[in-house]
Amino acid sequence: MAQRPDPTKALIRLPQVQRIIPYSRSTIYKLIASGDFPAPVKLQGGRASAWVQSEILEHAESLIAQREAPTE
């Protein structure tokens, strides 16, 4: 019996990432370089990139949590 793919490990391309977190392409890559955004996975011999959907959703949740955190 074949196993079903794990939906939490789905790979999404930049346009889908931007639908979840509406940053510009350049902002996303600056945040990746600074370690403040999930890094992409290289596809097709390094010519294309995709992100793990669950990592992007977790990042979005952390942004929401920062907003909702009490300020001192």
Quick structural summary:
This protein has helices spanning 14-20, 25-33, 53-68; strands at 11-12, 41-43, 48-52. The protein is α+β, with helices and mostly antiparallel strands.
Detailed description of the structure:
With 72 residues, this protein is α+β, with helices and mostly antiparallel strands. Helix content is 44%, strand content 14%. It contains three helices and three strands, in the order βααββα. The chain has helices spanning 14-20, 25-33, 53-68; strands spanning 11-12, 41-43, 48-52. A three-stranded antiparallel β-sheet has the order 1-3-2. β2 (41-43) and β3 form a beta hairpin. The model has no long low-confidence stretch (mean pLDDT 92).
Give short descriptive properties of this protein.
72 residues, 3 strands, three-stranded antiparallel sheet, 44% helix, alpha+beta, 3 helices, globular
Residue-averaged pLDDT, rounded?
92
Order of helices and strands: EHHEEH
Unreliable parts = none
How many helical stretches?
Answer: 3
